[in-house]
Amino acid sequence: MKVEIWSDVMCPFCYIGKRRFEEALAGLDGKDQIEIEWKSFQLNPDLKTNPNISINQYLADIKGWTLDHAEQMNNHVTQMAAQAGLTYDFSKSVVANSFNAHRLAHLAKKHGLGDAAEEALFRAYFTEGRNIDDNQTLIELGTAIGLNADEIKLTLETDSYADDVKHDIAEAQYLGVRGVPFFVMNRKYAVSGAQEVAVFKDTLTKAFAGWQQENPKAAFDIIEGESCSPDGDCE
Fold first, then answer.
1. Does the pTM of the predicted model rise above 0.85?
2. Does residue 230 lie within any of the structural domains?
3. pLDDT tens sequence across 146-180
4. Residues 9/132, Cβ–Cβ less than 8 Å
């Protein structure tokens, strides 16, 4: 069963939602039959990368908040993240456009490393305070999960996977996605936001049960004969 997850690397609730979803999935019978596909979404596609401004000041400016209020909001999110086992350090976060990070994620998905890329990018942004719009940073993150440095460099120096990112965003708009994280399960159930683990678990269970009914395992009448088993026994 496929689970599609729309998210943005700079969305704090997306990382929290990832952890809660993973906890729910870990307890699902049949979890080995779940295919996860990460999809791109940009909360602020026009954002200009600016390492010289704090994330608190950026939020205060775009939302019309006081600096103190922005700090309080991020402190609250930091506490939520800690409850999910994550360490956020907004004092180090770099204000950065996420488009190139999404392109790296699509390259990783091509090589079966989509989830590893998302994890690395989230950690880089929220915990390590790295600039996710810096080519060298993205090369380092990509090679750390097993991607080829030259392929990453070529991707970043061209417009590779730009259309894939735009397609994901357009698809989200078509589906009526208004915010992220947004989890679509078997294209029949959806969970919006970093819901509690119980919500993910309940929705996963229902979606998977429906998927199993639609995709029953084949039952065979087996005529036994001489054969070899994976443990090396031949008889």
1. yes
2. no
3. 999 999 999 999 999 999 999 999 999 999 999 99
4. yes
Angle at 23 between CA 5 and CA 170, to 5 degrees: 5
The whole domain housing 180 covers 2-214
Cis peptide before 12 (omega within 30 of 0): no
Q: Assess contact for 23 and 197: CB atoms under 8 A.
A: yes
At residue 47, φ and ψ (nearest 5 deg) are -60, 135
Average pLDDT, the chain: 95
Give the pair of three-digit tokens for residue 176. Answer: 């009526």
Distance (Å) of CA 98 to CA 8, 9, 56, 95, 128: 7, 6, 18, 9, 16
Domain membership flag for residue 90 = yes
State the total domains in the chain: 1
Integer Rg of the chain from CA = 21
CATH number of the domain bearing residue 98: 3.40.30.10
Check residue 13 and report its DSSP letter: H
Instruction: Provide the pLDDT for residue 21.
Output: 98
Q: pLDDT > 70: what percent of the chain?
A: 95
